[in-house]
Each structure stands twice: as structure tokens, then as C-alpha cells.
Amino acid sequence: MKIKNVSKLMTLTFLLVLLLLGGCGSKTEGTASDKEKLVNDGKLTYAMSGLLKPLNYKDNGKLVGFDVEIGAEIAKRIGLKANPVTNPWETIIQGLKGKKYDAIIGSMTATPERAKQVDFTDPYYISGAQIFVAKSNNSINSAEDLKNKKIGIMQASTYKEIADKYTKDVKNYPSDVYALQDLVPGRVDAVITDKIVGVSAIKQEGIQIKTAGDLLRKENISIAVNKDNPVLLKKINKAIKEMVDDGTYEKISNKWFGENVLK
């Protein structure tokens, strides 16, 4: 009887060990499935062109700008070290798909065409076609007020299609900044350009202009990640929401643009 009891006890112990090992195996798998995929352990490596001041550019060899700072804050909230890198814009999606970096935080517009190749987060700022007028101009407050006005645009800009809807008097400029500068002395009545370009000119150049009306064409600027990395996508979205909710986002936005560019 004693031998039989010992045999039963050993059998039960063996089965219990198997059950415990099986349980541990399931837990390990669950933990792995909750882990984001990274090209460098412990780092969030994110790409940008590095040529888009004040969004992302080099100052004394160091990458700085709004995109860089947003990426650093996201990395911190995920528990990773920020690792911003540059890549030519024309191949930046290919670089992401080739696992050169984990994300693109480089002022990329989320478009249906791009969404076929990558996944996009919630927008981290909103831009698009915006009307700008001189700060002293109170006669243009919406798109309807542009009728028969003199409108400035950058030459070869897609915004010409919008300007042509309201007037035949369209003046082309070699750069957006030149067009915006001509608002103050009244050489043009309004300028249509990208919202971020305009608000950057106000903040960085001190040009006495202001926005007029709502966006004529809205663009959601989002962070791109690979389609096989849903955990990272979820964590970045969570970080963006937390930044907005606790006021950190608005603080960073005001630093670079003097306003909240997510509104």
C-alpha cells in the first residue's frame, strides 16, 4: 500500500508540474504579444527629412524642431529612449517598410494612398490650405470674402486651383514667405498657403499677419508605423492622447508655433 501511495503521489506531482509549466508558457506568449517591434532595443527610432524648419531641421548638427520634440515625448511615455534619424523624403516610406526605423514622425499627411502601405496614428497636428491676411485687415474673414481680391500664392503651388475659384487676380511668388510679407504693405489682399507655413512665419519671422476663416482643405498630419506593428501604433496613440489631456502637447506646440496646431 505504501508503494502504491508513493507511486500515486509521484504521478500527481508530475502532472502538477506539467500544468504549472503549461501555465507559464501561456503567460510568456501573452507578454510577447504585448511587445512592440523595435529596430533597436530600448529605443524609439523615428525618421524625418531634417529639412523642414521649424518642424524638423539640424541646428549645429543636432536634430531639433517640433517633430523631434513630439517624438521624444512619445518615446518617454512609452518607456523608450528617443532616437531621431533623417532619411530622404522620397524614400522615407520604403525605409520604414525596410525596418530602418520604427516610425515616421516627419510631418507626413495621412492619405488613403499612403495608408495602403503603412498604418497611421491619430493626427498629432492638423494643417492644410489656409487664408492669411494682414493683422490690420478686418474685411476678409472667410473664403467668401476672397471674391475678386488679389491673392498671393507660391508659384507652382496646388493652392492655385483654390485661388482661381475666387478671383482672376492671382500673384505668384518664388516662396511662401515672400507672399506673406507682401500682405503687410497691401501688395496682395490675401495669401493661401499651408497653415503651418503661415503660423511658423508669424512665430519665427515676426510677420504681422493672421489666419482668416477655417481651413480650405484639411490635412491630418500623423505618425506612420509598419502594418505588422499594431502594438506600437496603440502605444503611440495612447501617448498622444495623454500629452493632449495633460497639457504637454499644447506647451510644445506653443513653443514652436505660438498656438495649438491640433485645433
Structural overview:
This protein has 263 residues and is an alpha/beta fold. The protein folds into 2 domains: 43-125 and 221-257, Periplasmic binding protein-like II (D-Maltodextrin-Binding Protein, domain 2, 3-Layer(aba) Sandwich), CATH 3.40.190.10; 127-219, 3-Layer(aba) Sandwich (D-Maltodextrin-Binding Protein, domain 2), CATH 3.40.190.10. The protein has 8 helices and 12 strands. It is elongated. Residues 25-31 have low confidence and may be disordered.
Number of strands: 12
Strand content: 25-35%
Top CATH class of the largest domain: Alpha Beta
Morphology call: elongated
What is the CA-based Rg, rounded? 26 Å
- Uncertain runs are 25-31
Supply the CATH architecture of the largest domain: 3-Layer(aba) Sandwich
Considering the protein shown, what is the CATH homologous superfamily of the largest domain?
A: Periplasmic binding protein-like II
Distance between the termini: 80 Å
